[in-house]
Specification:
Chain lengths: 339, 275, 332
């Protein structure tokens, strides 16, 4: 069996913050990411899904080595990325790339498109000007732009075009893994589909894997092969996209899917609404972090014990006391329970 | 676009500062150092004087107009050199401070605080007592006074820029800290530095004039504007033109520089917001 | 021109709004007409540059000054044309007859006053009365918008509240004057999706209890499907299609509406490829004389490019379904 391109083991990240007033030295700990385990196969796309404060952005930044983990490991092609240096680090930088959310903030206003797109190669490889130009042109064409645009500055382009430039700069080094952090949320609705199709084309052509962070479930269903649902820094459910959408197990996942509003023609109205607000990550509830808002709260076990993440034979994993035994997964609750 | 330039202040600046500074040797009507005791204390032309000494003469019969024109050189020179050096030092330290943060940042900002707390005039007095007034001393004091403004402003912008997505992407591409600072942050704060520098010119010219007035700046017999003002101190009632016109030169220069700086900031500002 | 019903609380007729920029005047709303009935939610759907937000700002007459101005048309609210009112009269209308909920909860509230104070102030401005009585009513409003622990939260500052809760307080403030219509400009864009659902249900409950009409501006078709009874689709400053939500989603008549529906990735089923509308929304300064969607429309012909299309009934014949197109119903 081939090695997964990405493995995340017990990944944890805590932040210390000042919690007292101006003159106090009280510190609190924000558990942004807590004990996450996951893996991603080559050529596949995994989506990290969850709402604000769930830790998906922090997790994505750890995958890029922009933040160091508090504990745990990130393995890319089997290597722990926190130990890389020299040539191995350069290869990592070329092999793992990113596209961020805001096309207006992603490109340095004072750099020409050519320099922006070529940057990864300029830093990590020694290429002649001619070779560099060839690779830049190739990357621009791959994203649907023209090579003669390379000499222009970012402000001369629209949002969708700027995102294409960002994508070109990400793919030029032929990475095996690209982290996409809300890559289309800042774009107009009619442009999003162009970019999403482009991502799929690039995946087919370059055979790369994606980790996509998205809050929009429609985008997620379109792009991802697998979904990992996060809540307050923990993974609560993980599995194949279609399985998660068709038979979600964790109550939070079901609430999330409930809240995703389809464009139904003649829609039904049964929806599962959560009570209350997302609790502060400074002070997460004991036991299962979701229990204060859980519509399917069982009892004491939910307040006292953290449910373990259990995986069934089909690769569908969930951390919930409703599903205590992998051999005997609880029957999927019917719509009646959702109200 | 030309009509949107602040033409009036630019014209004043050119007439009072730049052209005399560059061309005094050719266009000044008299030798600024040459005394002519027969023409001492001549009033300016519309107050009883002649066109020969259009702005009057001082106690030694030296032409005020020519002295002002030659003195412009010092104002311009000090401000150019002082600002460039101050900007270099301040920007470099501001970048380092803002990008590295941690103890380096704290240290540099404490130094800035100390700099602002020390009175520059006293410092200049102390230095002058040790080594005598000189051009170099004035430059040193100027740099001392203004580097902190650059450091703080640059640091603030660096702090905000380093969190931007395009810096994160540069790190993902493998860029080193130096590369990020030089290629990503510095070009995007260039506008701020230019505006700040322009606005500091007024401060610097006033500082130089003050030091020269007190006798601890440009050494005599150079006709620096501050010295010219000092020359007329005791005759302020009877021969008011000796101090007034150099003072006016200082005023007009600083005013026009500030006006231009304001317009420059407004012009560059909306583009700054796009960053 | 929409059909004029007896119940129309708000009726906009041929609204034209301009932005006076240094380079010249740009028409951002180019002849928009719609109406909203009591107890009804109307969705205004469009992308950036469509003019939807400018329309909302025009109705509330809070266009940015001095560059924004209403260049023509009428806005009828309970028998009065808002375009003709003076600033002082309009201030009375805002808050009493029209409530506003804007997009960003973090800037809608004044950070230096408690939320309770801001609510009481809204009540003072709209209904008047002694402060003590108003405090009780303010707490009542907070309960009406489901702010938990309202008595305590009354004394809280905005920064102590989450985005969802702030938006609820903004909702409470908009309700202070018992308005006939609430204009909500993308109020849930900055909220998490489960919080958004709570908020939409809140709006529904409010409408059910008070009969307030709601004009909901959004780019999210899912929200429209859930919340709105009728919708108008805007493109480049004009309305290209309008009708009941189920009608328009079932048989969209305008190629832009069709394209939009086809290009949004669906939550309820997996597809392999999305329909991508070629090109991008036009810059408002560059709109020519023909149909503004023609450059991107697969059906466009010479007539489309040169002549602005009339508004005609939808080919399905449903009531209230109107479309501005030379070839309505031909796109699929």
């Amino acid at each position: 069996m081939t090695q997964p391109i990405l493995e995340i083991r017990n990944l944890t990240r805590h932040f210390e913050v000042a919690t007292g007033g101006m003159f106090s030295s009280k510190r609190g700990i924000v558990r942004a990411v807590e004990d996450v385990n996951m893996s991603l196969e080559r050529g596949q796309t995994t989506a990290l899904v969850g709402e604000s404060g769930c830790g998906k952005t922090t997790l994505a930044r750890m995958l890029l080595r922009l933040i160091e983990p508090t504990s745990g490991q990130v393995l890319v092609e089997g290597q722990d990325i926190s130990t890389l240096s020299g040539g191995a680090l350069r290869r990592f930088r070329m092999g793992v790339q990113a596209v961020f959310q805001d096309p207006w903030a992603s490109l340095s206003p004072r750099m020409r498109v050519f320099d922006i797109v070529a940057e990864t190669l300029v830093i990590n490889e020694r290429l002649t000007k001619g070779e560099l130009t060839r690779r830049v042109d190739e990357a621009l064409i791959s994203v649907g732009l023209r090579p003669d645009m390379a000499r222009l500055f970012p402000h001369e382009f629209s949002g969708g075009q700027r995102q294409r430039i960002a994508i070109a700069s990400a793919i030029i080094a032929r990475p095996s893994l690209i982290i996409l952090d809300e890559p289309v949320s800042a774009l107009d609705v009619s442009i999003r589909s162009q970019i999403m199709n482009l991502f799929k084309d690039i995946q087919a052509e370059y055979k790369c894997s994606y980790v996509i962070v998205a809050h929009d479930l429609g985008t997620t269903r379109f792009m991802a092969d697998r979904i990992a649902v996060m809540y307050l820094g923990r993974l609560v459910e993980e599995g194949q996209t279609e399985t998660i959408f068709e038979s979600p197990r964790h109550p939070y996942t079901r609430a999330l899917l409930s809240a995703a509003l389809p464009i139904r023609r003649g829609g039904e109205k049964a929806r599962m609404t959560l009570k209350g607000e997302v609790p502060s990550p400074l002070d997460p509830p004991g036991g299962c972090p979701f229990h204060p808002r859980c519509p399917q709260f069982i009892g004491d076990v939910c307040t006292t014990t953290l449910p373990p993440m259990l995986r069934d034979g089909q690769g569908h994993a969930v951390a919930c006391h409703l599903h205590p035994d992998t051999n005997r997964m609880a029957v999927v609750q019917t719509n009646k329970e959702m109200t | 676009m030309l009509s949107r330039l602040p033409l009036f202040p630019i014209a004043i600046l050119l007439i009072v500062l730049v052209i005399p500074a560059l061309f005094a040797d050719w266009i000044a009507p008299h030798d600024p150092y040459k005394s002519n005791l027969r023409a001492r204390l001549e009033p300016p032309v519309f107050f009883g004087g002649t066109w020969e000494y259009a702005l009057g003469t001082d106690r030694l019969g030296r032409d005020i107009l020519s002295r002002i024109m030659h003195g412009a050189r010092y104002a311009l020179g000090i401000s150019m050199i002082g600002i460039v050096l101050g900007a270099l030092v301040g920007t470099a330290l501001g970048l380092i401070s803002g990008y590295l943060r941690g103890w380096v940042d704290i240290l540099i900002m404490r130094v800035v605080d100390i700099t602002f707390a020390l009175p520059s005039i006293l410092l200049a007095l102390a230095l002058a007592a040790v080594s005598g007034p000189s051009f170099g001393l004035v430059v040193l004091v100027v740099v001392f006074v203004i580097w902190g403004f650059f450091a703080r402003q640059v640091r603030a912008e660096t702090l905000s820029l380093r969190e931007r997505d395009f810096v994160a992407r540069a790190r993902v591409a493998g860029a080193s800290g130096t590369r990020i600072v030089l290629r990503y942050i510095l070009p995007n704060i260039a506008n701020t530095i230019i505006v700040l520098a322009t606005l500091q010119i007024g401060v610097v010219i006033l500082l130089e004039a003050t030091l020269s007035f007190l006798g601890i700046g440009i050494p005599r017999p150079a006709p620096a504007w501050g010295i010219l003002v000092a020359d007329g101190r005791q005759l302020i009632v009877s021969a008011w033109w000796i101090s007034l016109f150099p003072g006016l030169a200082i005023l007009l220069t600083v005013l026009s520089v500030n006006l231009i700086g304001d317009r420059l900031r407004d012009w560059l500002d909306p583009k700054l917001r796009q960053v | 021109m929409t059909e004029q019903t007896q119940d129309a609380i708000l009726r906009v007729e041929n609204l034209r709004t301009q932005l006076m920029l240094a380079s010249g005047a740009i028409d951002v709303v180019r002849g928009v007409s719609f109406s909203v009935n009591a107890g009804e939610t109307l969705g205004i759907v469009g992308e950036s540059g469509s003019g939807k937000s400018m329309t909302a700002l025009s109705v509330m007459r809070v266009l940015p000054r001095p560059i924004g101005r209403i260049a023509g048309g009428a806005i009828w609210l309970e028998g009065r044309n808002l375009v003709e009112l003076s600033d002082a009269e309009m201030t009375k209308v805002r808050g009493r007859q029209i409530g506003m909920i804007l997009q960003d909860p973090h800037t809608s509230l004044n950070p230096v006053f408690t939320v309770g104070d801001q609510l009481v102030e809204a009540l003072q401005l709209t209904t008047g009365g002694a402060r003590r009585g108003l405090v009780a009513r303010a707490i009542g409003l907070m309960k009406q918008v489901n702010v938990a622990d309202a008595e305590r939260r009354f004394h809280a500052y905005p920064h102590q509240m989450s985005g969802g809760m702030k938006q609820r307080v903004v909702g409470a403030i908009s309700l202070a004057g018992a308005p006939k219509v609430i204009i909500a400009d993308e109020p849930t864009t900055a909220l998490d999706v489960t919080i958004q659902l709570q908020y939409l249900q809140l709006l529904e409950d409010i409408q059910h209890d008070t009969g307030t009409a709601i004009v909901f501006i959004t780019h999210d078709l899912g929200i429209v499907s859930r919340l709105c009874h009728r919708l108008v689709v805007m493109y480049a400053g004009r309305i290209v299609e309008e009708g009941r939500v189920d009608t328009v989603f079932e048989s969209p008549a305008h190629p832009y509406t069709v394209a939009l529906l086809n290009s949004v990735p669906h939550v309820d089923r997996r597809v392999e490829r999305l329909y991508a509308i070629p090109g991008q929304p036009p810059a408002l300064s560059e709109i020519g004389s023909g149909c503004s969607f023609a450059p991107r429309c697969p059906l466009a012909d010479e007539q489309c490019r040169s002549q602005s299309p009339p508004t005609v009934p939808g080919p399905d014949g449903a009531t209230g379904h109107r479309v501005a197109c030379w070839k309505p119903g031909e796109a699929q």
